[in-house]
Amino acid sequence: MRRAALWAMVMWCSGTAWAAPGTFVACSNFECSRRDAISLTDAQWREIREIFAPATASAQQERAALRRAIARMEDFVGALNGSSADLGGNEAGAGLPGQMDCIDESTNATTYLKLFREAGLLRRHEVQARAHRAKWGFDIHWTAVIRDTAAGQLYAVDSWFLDNGQPPYIQKLEDWLDKKDFEQQDE
Questions:
Q1: What is the distance, to the nearest Å, from the Cα of residue 114 to the centroid of all Cα atoms in its chain?
Q2: Exposed site from 34, 58, 110, 119, fewest CB < 10 Å?
Q3: For 10-50, what is each residue's pLDDT tens digit?
Q4: Residue 124 has pLDDT above 80, yes or no
Q5: DSSP for the chain, written as a single string
C-alpha cells in the first residue's frame, strides 16, 4: 500500500507523466482503409495509466491490466473516429460505418501496446510484430502480439471477435495459431 501511494505521488508531482501521448493513427473501415489522427486528453491518458497502478506484481496481472487498458482505449478512440459501434467479427456490422476487421483491430491494438510501452507502463512484456494465421492460404486472421519478458512466451492480443470496448482475448500464441477456444486463455 505504501509503495502504491509513493508511486502515485511521484507520478502526480511529475506533471508530464500524466500528459497524453502525441497524436497517433487509428484504423477502421476494413483493411485500414480509413486512418484517423487521434489525440487523447490528459484526463483520458491518466485513466489509462491508473489501470497499471500500482505496478503489476506478475506478468499475468499485467496481461489483465492490458485487457482493461485496450478496452478503454477502444472506447476513447471509438468516440473520436466513429468506430464506437463496431461489432465483433466481420459479418455482424458489415457495411456499417466504423466497422473494423482483424487488420484494423490488430493494427490498433499494436499501436496501443506501443503507446503503453513508450509510457513505461509495460514492465513485464514487449510488443512484437503482428502475427497471422491461415489454413491453406485463406481465412487469414491477424492479431497483435506481446512477449512475456521473463518466460519468453508469446501471446496473441485479439479484440476482433468482440464488440468495441470489450477487453480483448489474450492467449498463448501457439494456442491462437491452433484456433483453440478462448476459454483456455490466460486470465
A1: 9
A2: 58
A3: 444 444 557 899 999 999 999 999 999 999 999 999 999 99
A4: yes
A5: -HHHHHHHHHHHHSGGGGSPP--EEEEESSTT-EEEEE---HHHHHHHHHHT-SPPSSHHHHHHHHHHHHHHHHHHHHHHHS-TTPPSTTTTTTTSTT---HHHHHHHHHHHHHHHHHTT--SSEEEEEEEEEEETTEEEEEEEEEEETTT--EEEEE-TTS-TTSPPEEEEHHHHHTT--GGGS--
